[in-house]
Amino acid sequence: MSEWYEDESFWKAVYPFLMTEERMEGAADEVDSALSLVGFEGRDVLDLCCGVGRHSVELAEQGFSVTGVDRSPFLLGKARSLAEDQGVEVEWIEADVRDFIRPGSFDLVLNMFTSFGYFEDPGDDRKVLGNVFESLRDGGKLLIDLAGKELVAAVLQPTTSDKSPDGGLLVRRHEIVDSWSRIKNDWIVVQDGRTESFSFCLRMYSARELEDALSAAGFRHARIFGDLRGGEYGPGAERLIAVAVK
User: Fold this and answer.
1) How far apart are CA 100 and CA 67, in angstroms?
2) Chain mean position to CA 114
């Protein structure tokens, strides 16, 4: 039985809600902030779980050599179109992050927009971090951007909803499961008179849990921030941002 992230109908249905015009336009500021936060001085960047390529393309526009990896053909199709529209070259690779590894090839790996924790087996998350560690050059850096467990606990609502610009409706239902290790999501998309339902779970990490996972993978000097601008991971935090060094 296939996993939820392998279902192309899911990505097609939620695309208008996740990739809003505002979010696409915000990629430039996010990339600038991420590069400043890690103090990046290298050239080769891996955008892991690149999705529609908004960060990959921005990095390429700034002159970096960029590889974008995702397992969704639909999202990668959007990424290729975006790169073509912007006139930049990006290496796009369709692959599962548990399988992708390119030893000693990158100066920076970015994993943005809560694209870590998809798998039921926590050992798979450890494998992903191990692959990233091997794919980085010595001194290379990893930046992970998550909705941290502490933040989820503070703002969780049982039900939320969003409208897309073309009038679609996305209803999200949330439930904490497995002793606060995962969050179960039921998403209902109403579009053009059709209703589609999707259920999936994401593994949640606290700051300490993510630090421990990075340390176990071999990373050093892990630092935790509350946003891409380097703010404190405290009550006012927007995200859980981890930066670690090989």
Assistant:
1) 11
2) 4
